[in-house]
Amino acid sequence: MNESSAGRSGFTPAYLDRVGSSFTDFLGVTAPDLLPGRRPIPQLPMGDIPHGTTIVSVTYDGGVLMGGDRRATMGNLISSRDIEKVYPADSYSVIGIAGAAGIAIEMVRLYQVELEHYEKIEGLTLSLDGKANRLAAMIRGNLGAAMQGLAVVPLFAGFDLDAAPGTSPGRIFSYDITGGNYEERGYAAVGSGSLFAKNSLKKTWRNGLPADAAVRTVVESLYDAADDDSATGGPDPVRRLYPIVYRVDGEGAVRLTDAEVAAVADGIVTDRAQADRENMNREA
After folding, report:
1. pLDDT at position 28, please?
2. 196: Cβ–Cβ under 8 A, 6 or more apart, which residues?
3. CA 166, CA 220: separation in Å to the nearest integer?
4. With CB atoms counted within 10 Å of each terminal CB, which end of the chain scores lower, N or C?
């Protein structure tokens, strides 16, 4: 199609020329102002903005799990009690957000389009390592905003369709604000409650966990994080708010139902209450 016919169709040449399989690169050519990292950032100190924490992920026998609490904070205030922090990136991977909530959610949506665009252009699914590297590039593009307090530090996990026989197909990747990409072994956590969540995971996670036990490990680590970190929300049976948990295995990424997660969380609360009563009886 020549330039005149392109003009009559209503599209600029950039929309009609193949510029590669990256939607982010395409957006950088056609509308760079729409990229989160390209927008002008106020040079004056900003007030408190909503931040999301905490995200955990564990591998298990057959795949990987990722869970996140539901609280977002703005300084010393709770800005949201039911925010969603874990999303499917594509059919076989998930992403959890920590940091500046608004930019993080926007980055997730752009990343979802990035992976879908690659599939449509190339006719195949990007490898899990390729997905992790694409996300690293997007985080690196947000470095200017991160240096001014608008950092986004996600956690990425997925089922590796190309995993060698005998190796775990579930894999986890963590990042820093510069886009550094690090593969984690077994489990990982990000966010303000990550220290407490990791301490819990050290005690409860083991290699080859069955799926049910792994779900309890994820929910229990979030429970422990909420016990010591004010920015992490614990189970809220009154409002029926429980962590969001995704399971990714050979059949794809599936969100556990609220009833499934509630049953696990309520069981943990019951067990903890029983243990406390037993301790009090021994002391008496």
Report:
1. 72
2. 224, 225, 227, 228, 229, 232
3. 29
4. C
Is 53 among the catalytic positions? yes
Please name the residue ranges forming H helices in 128-206.
128-140, 143-146, 194-204
CB 246 within 8 A of CB 252: no
**Averaged pLDDT, groups of 10, the chain, 284 residues long:** 46 56 72 64 58 92 96 89 95 94 91 92 92 94 83 94 89 95 96 95 95 97 95 91 96 96 95 86 78
Question: Can you read off the two tokens belonging to residue 51?
Answer: 């931040």
Cβ pair 203, 210 in contact under 8 A: no
Catalytic residue among 24, 53, 59, 217: 53
Domains of the chain: 47-279 (3.60.20.10)
The rounded distance, in Å, linking the Cα atoms of 121 and 62 is 30
pTM for this structure?
A: 0.83
